[in-house]
Design brief:
It contains two helices and four strands; from the N terminus they run βαββαβ. It is an alpha+beta fold.
Length: 87
């Protein structure tokens, strides 16, 4: 089996990147994305909803300029109080 933790992701920047977030159904993903990305251009789209309807997942796509940019936004999303999980 391949241990992915031993391999570095090789990307050519700038590139489009998609973050998948899981939030409670009552939260507005567009407002959360606006809170994180501000005026930076991004696109939010619905992905899935949980079977009990309590959670939903959304895709947030944007252009990242380098590895620090990509990992910074992952960290900010992960620490956001209304986001349950970042995939």
């Amino acid at each position: 089996m391949i241990d992915l933790n031993k391999h570095k992701l090789e990307l050519v920047y700038p590139c489009e990147w998609c973050y998948k977030i899981v939030i409670h159904d009552e939260h507005d993903g567009h407002l959360i994305a606006k809170d994180v990305f501000g005026e930076r251009e991004h696109k939010v789209s619905h992905s899935k909803a949980s079977s009990n309807g309590k959670f939903k997942s959304l895709n947030i796509e944007l252009l990242v300029h380098n590895d620090d940019d990509r990992t910074h936004f992952h960290k900010v999303l992960h620490e956001h109080e209304k986001i349950k999980m970042v995939i």
